[in-house]
Amino acid sequence: MPEPPDHAGRPLGEPFPWVRAAHESLNQPFQQLLRAMALCVEHQLHTPTLVLLYSAIDTAAWLGAEEPPGIVRERFVRWVDRYVVAALTPPRCTAVELYAARCGVVHTMTATSNLTGRGVRKVIYAWLPSRRVELAEMTAIGNMSADHVAVQGDELISAFADGLNLVLPQFRGHLG
């Protein structure tokens, strides 16, 4: 008898798509991070998922930076602009908004950073089975669209994994 589906509609224990797609091509550290994110999502541990995701993006951006690696914000925004934002469903957040979200989540475990409220919208997340569209509609009803942008959390992870698969060959010399 097949296992009942989890909150994302897939059989329990079956990998999320980004883990399955990246399994063969990613080096071990990134495989472990993606698998840890999948476990966190499966158990609805969204803040730890985001901490892992933003840390992984930081690492990928550092590995892909020209010498010298540069300022964290610049390389994060450049990498996310190049490999993540375009893969998200419109209307999209910006790379700077994701950087602000990263700062908030990684440094204070909140959605607020020094950039939010200063022309940078606060990122709020929907996780399956909830949808980003529904969250965006709620922010519009509450007159918060100018200050908030809705992002599908699982789609963000998938976009990161896809971007990583595009650039991983150039990282091979950096990873042990």
Description of the molecule:
The protein is 53% helix and 6% strand. With 176 residues, the chain is mainly alpha-helical. It has one domain (17-171). Helix 4 (72-83) crosses helix 5.
Notable characteristics:
7 helices, disordered N terminus, single chain, globular, 176 residues, mainly alpha
Any chance you could write out the topology, listing elements then pairs?
Elements: H1 17-22, H2 28-42, H3 46-63, H4 72-83, H5 95-108, E1 122-126, H6 132-141, E2 148-152, H7 153-171
Parallel strand pairs: 1-2
The dominant shape is globular
Describe the strand arrangement of the main beta sheet, using strand numbers.
1-2
Distance separating the two termini: 42 Å
Please, how many helices? 7
H/E element sequence: HHHHHEHEH
Please describe the biggest sheet, giving its number of strands, its sense, and whether it closes into a barrel: 2 strands, parallel
The mean pLDDT is 82
Helical proportion, percent range? 40-55%
- Count of folded domains: 1
Point out poorly predicted stretches: 1-7, 18-25
Assembly status: single chain
The radius of gyration is: 16 Å
Give a brief outline of the structure.
This protein has seven helices and two strands, in the order H-H-H-H-H-E-H-E-H. With 176 residues, it is mostly helical.
